[in-house]
């Protein structure tokens, strides 16, 4: 008898209802299909990481060869051990396949695995006295390239296998009917998270409300579902923290992973929060990273180093853009505008000029003649077709090249590489009560707003993203945003 008929037959007299969302295959074929998809996800992420490592070493080898000549083949025999070391540590961090893991957590774990790999490499060359076989420049460049290429490779590969229908881990959702259906719709609308509900189990209130016999029958049925669908994870809706002990006891021998969801879709900001035992007490500890002076020093040091190095490295590009702006339209090359900075201090933000002379008058006239577009301007402070922008300006804005002079702002300390969006003086009132939170940090050249749709977002959405960044700031979040920014800018997503 198929599992669906079996469950229907055995639950007629109980307060538990089972909804099967995938009945297209037999029980045996369904379990095999889920195992195959899980295997494809693991192999795809594994091949993605290996490709990222090999590409990074190849690029580093080309640059090193161009500067100092080709390396001997003896170096490349060490690549297989490198790869094995990386895979072992990445696997230990849960990165295969990393379904349901937050993107920032994936990036954090990838960076950790990459750093450990190169730390072992450097230590090994010293300990075994093999420095003659290795190039310090090659190792350094490979490390830098790996930090960027491996995460980007994962994003690309995951998008491909998602479109091919091979991304998603089957899960069970259990809880009151309204909350379970709401959770089901959420995961169906955000499939890239990778949790694919296959069964919903409706219970009256919570697991503690069931009779002992009902709970025993539920446990047996869940085991049948687990085997039929090859399910490792269950999503459990909870209402009170006191339920945790019973939830753990009920599901610990059935599912490998239990994910708790606040009943009613309650969103609890857990940024900077961790579980810590103090003696016999189990506590939730909240760390305010903005108060951590060591972390702030690291952020400022990175700003100075990257901005100074960046200005020197791209100086030919800056000169070329300056010439194009001069040729395209009359006016100065650099445009500066006052913005709100940290502690509410005003500063001049530098950009390449992308607008025509008398831009404010042009905008005022344009909005008066096109009242329908005034609403678009009021909502986002942007226009898809802005009459003020020059021909060169359109290109510079598409790839954010107009913002490169802000490296000067970063170097002198009134901006950061990553932070909330620079706020115009007249936009202070739009932020409302959030303004005081906004001025706790330096505004950034890029931020969550940059990698989350850029100009496609309404201004209200940008405020939410800014507040999310400020409340959940960490060095890892900065690194992740910087890496994602390169990808977003190259694609020209949300730019106009």
Describe the SSE topology:
Blueprint (H helix, E strand, L loop, with lengths): L2 H8 L6 E4 L6 H42 L10 H14 L10 H25 L8 H28 L5 E7 L1 H13 L5 E8 L9 H18 L3 E6 L5 H8 L5 E6 L10 E6 L2 E6 L6 H21 L1 H14 L5 E7 L5 E7 L6 H11 L1 H10 L10 H8 L7 H7 L3 E3 L4 E2 L3 H4 L3 H4 L5 E3 L1 H4 L7 H13 L3 H17 L5
Parallel strand pairs: 2-3, 2-4, 4-5, 10-12
Antiparallel strand pairs: 1-3, 6-7, 8-9, 8-11
Helix pairs in contact: 2-5, 3-4, 4-5, 9-14
What does this structure look like?
The chain has helices at residues 3-10, 27-68, 79-92, 103-127, 136-163, 177-189, 212-229, 244-251, 293-313, 315-328, 359-369, 371-380, 391-398, 406-412, 428-431, 435-438, 448-451, 459-471, 475-491; strands at residues 17-20, 169-175, 195-202, 233-238, 257-262, 273-278, 281-286, 334-340, 346-352, 416-418, 423-424, 444-446. The model is unreliable at 7-13 (pLDDT under 50). The protein has 3 domains: 35-163, no CATH class; 168-268, SGNH hydrolase (Rossmann fold), CATH 3.40.50; 293-354 and 389-491, no CATH class. The strands form 4 sheets. It has a 5-stranded mixed β-sheet with strand order 1-3-2-4-5, sandwiched between helices. It is α/β, with parallel strands linked by helices and 496 residues long. Residues 299-490 form the Bacterial sugar transferase domain. It is found in: Membrane. It is a multi-pass membrane protein. The chain crosses the membrane at residues 37-63, 75-95, 107-128, 134-157, 301-325.
């Amino acid at each position: 008898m198929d599992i669906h008929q079996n469950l229907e037959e055995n639950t007629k007299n109980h307060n538990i209802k089972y909804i099967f969302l995938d009945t297209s295959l037999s029980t045996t074929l369904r379990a095999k299909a889920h195992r195959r998809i899980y295997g494809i996800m693991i192999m795809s992420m594994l091949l993605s990481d290996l490709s990222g490592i090999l590409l990074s070493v190849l690029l580093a080898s080309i640059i090193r060869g161009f500067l100092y000549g080709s390396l001997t083949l003896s170096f490349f025999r060490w690549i297989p051990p490198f790869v094995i070391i990386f895979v072992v540590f990445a696997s230990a961090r849960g990165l295969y396949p990393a379904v349901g893991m937050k993107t920032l957590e994936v990036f954090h774990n990838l960076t950790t695995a990459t750093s450990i790999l190169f730390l072992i490499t450097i230590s090994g060359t010293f300990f075994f006295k093999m420095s003659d076989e290795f190039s310090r420049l090659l190792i350094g460049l490979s490390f830098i390239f790996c930090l960027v290429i491996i995460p980007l490779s994962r994003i690309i590969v995951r998008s491909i296998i998602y479109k091919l229908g091979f991304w998603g881990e089957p899960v069970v959702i259990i809880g009151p009917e309204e909350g379970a259906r709401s959770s089901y719709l959420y995961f169906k609308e955000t499939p890239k998270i990778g949790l694919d509900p296959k069964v919903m189990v409706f219970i009256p209130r919570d697991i503690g409300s069931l009779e002992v016999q009902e709970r025993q029958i539920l446990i047996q049925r869940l085991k049948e579902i687990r085997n039929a669908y090859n399910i490792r994870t269950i999503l459990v809706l909870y209402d009170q923290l006191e339920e945790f002990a019973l939830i753990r006891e009920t599901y610990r021998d059935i599912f490998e992973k239990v994910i708790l969801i606040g009943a009613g879709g309650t969103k609890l900001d857990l940024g900077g929060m961790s579980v810590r035992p103090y003696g016999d007490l189990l506590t939730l500890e909240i760390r305010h990273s903005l108060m951590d002076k060591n972390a702030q020093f690291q952020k400022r040091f990175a700003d100075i180093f990257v901005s100074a190095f960046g200005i020197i490295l791209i100086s030919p590009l800056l000169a070329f853009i300056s010439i194009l702006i001069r040729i395209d339209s009359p006016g100065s090359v650099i445009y500066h505008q006052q913005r709100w900075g940290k502690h509410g201090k005003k500063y001049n933000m530098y950009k390449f000029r992308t607008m025509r002379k008398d831009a404010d008058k042009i905008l005022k006239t344009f909005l008066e003649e096109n009242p329908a577009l005034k609403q678009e301007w009021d909502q986002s402070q942007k226009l898809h077709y802005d009459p003020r922008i020059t021909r060169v300006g359109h290109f510079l804005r598409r790839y954010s090249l107009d913002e490169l002079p802000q490296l000067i702002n970063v170097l002198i300390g009134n901006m950061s590489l990553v932070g909330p969006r620079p706020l115009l003086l007249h936009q202070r009132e739009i932020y409302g009560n959030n303004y005081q939170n906004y001025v706790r940090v330096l505004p950034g050249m890029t931020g969550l707003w940059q990698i989350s749709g850029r100009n496609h977002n309404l201004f209200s959405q940008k405020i939410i993203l800014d507040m999310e960044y400020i409340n959940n700031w960490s060095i890892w979040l900065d690194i992740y945003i910087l890496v994602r920014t390169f990808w977003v800018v190259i694609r020209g997503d949300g730019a106009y």
